[in-house]
UniProtKB/TrEMBL annotation, chain A:
InterPro entries reported for this sequence: Cys_rich_dom, HdrB/HdrD_reductase
Species this protein is from: Candidatus Abyssobacteria bacterium SURF_17
Identification of the protein by name: Heterodisulfide reductase
PANTHER family: COB--COM HETERODISULFIDE REDUCTASE SUBUNIT B 1 (PTHR42947:SF1)
Key word Oxidoreductase present: yes
Domain named Cysteine-rich: residues: 5-86, 149-242
Gene Ontology molecular function, alphabetical: oxidoreductase activity
Pfam families: CCG
Gene3D superfamilies referenced in this protein's UniProt entry, alphabetically: 1.20.1050.140, 3.40.50.11810
Keywords: Oxidoreductase
Amino acid sequence: MELGLFLGCNTPAIRPDVERAIRLTMPKLGVDLIDLEGYVCCPAFGTFPSTDEDSHLAVSGWNLSLAEQKGLDLLVECGSCYSSLRVGRELILHDEKKRARVNELLQPVGRTVEGKSKVRHITDVLYNDVGVEKISKSIDKPLDGLHAVVQYPCHTLFPSELVGFDSPPARPRIMRELVEALGAKVDSFSREYQCCGGAGGFHGTSAAEARGFAQTKFDAIKSETQADFMVVSCITCLMFLDNVQKELSEGNGKYDIPVFDYNQILALCMGFDPKQVAPICTVSRDRILERF
Amino acid sequence: MTDLATANKNLWRDVFDSEDLRYCFNCSTCVSGCPASNANPPLLIRNLARMVILGLEDELLEQDTPWTCVTCSRCEEFCPMNVKPFELCLAIRKWQSRNDETRIPPSIVEIYSRGYTQAVERNTEQRKALGLPEKLSAISEYPELLEKFRKMLMQTQVISKNAYMFEGV
Ligand code: SF4
Ligand code: SF4
């Protein structure tokens, strides 16, 4: 299958090793990725969707029209991009007035949009289109003997009616099964479904409280699991849960659980070069990388 | 003390024109699962819903807490009355942006100028080292498209009204 690759901004700008991992692993699983020339900010919820509906629609419409022009559905890793694009598509597809307005805004610049292109999260495609069996067969360096914990991207769970693909949404299992397909044991813990807390203005306005919120998750991981590493599938979860551990370690206690995006750990299991697919991190990944 | 006599009873229509808002019964489900309810000051979406329903315009305009929302949509999923608290949160931000230009997120000026909040176009060395195409299909690579994108944004309501913010970027 072919999908339009919507990278967003954080991945190519700050964690391009995740982009490398996605570009290497997906075609190996039969998912070819097509770039979208001229894509812009998703728009992130804190930008146009917090300004007015007009500009929100215009920017969503811009991005969706790029995929629509190529007749492609979109593949997205970033949780915020995924959710924002799905909300935008919903408005354009199902609300006639809004569709008319967005086309009025796009028309002078020679674009149109109907909302035909679907917006897919990468874990949805991996689980529902590729399937765990095919993933297991695609790897030659399984994670046997290792314990993992997973972090679900909130934007892929809620509101389930709009963004969901796991069932039931409040008891998600896709991330777990995807990691188990690589041979690791996934340990449960009491704060598994807690948000990372890294998006929006929470950390920016209340750094100490956001740190404390994340600490409850890491303390639960430390006391309840044997986790060797953590797997996420959202660029915000990745950056925040990795970086916040350094901040936490400046207080009492040691927080040093390596965090990987799913496609990074998949790429490692497929035998791709760790220096290309997983070199950028705050908490050292050496303990895991030396296996590969 | 809050004086309800001076309240704007039609505020809810202006902020979040949804009948569902009236069904909010203060159960606090939206607060108990909210990551930003841990912020300082806490985001209490239940209280914001009350302010909108009661018409407390001045108080609502002063609220910074809607901006701490992490957009996780837990409240949206679990509100038993389908009030759509997350949409309400964004609606309050939009209402504030309409009524107080200092609320307009500065990030939209960055997006107007280069398409993103992050400098995606500048990361060429690192991309090369990772074996990635140095140039991304980002809009900054297509000046003609960027011009069109800006032109489109200039027609939208809040931006055209505050065009001075975008001059010379
Ligand atoms: S969960 Fe819904 S009904 Fe309950 S307080 Fe929040 S908005 Fe109101
Ligand atoms: S969407 Fe915002 S208000 Fe709702 S639970 Fe998440 S952080 Fe809180």
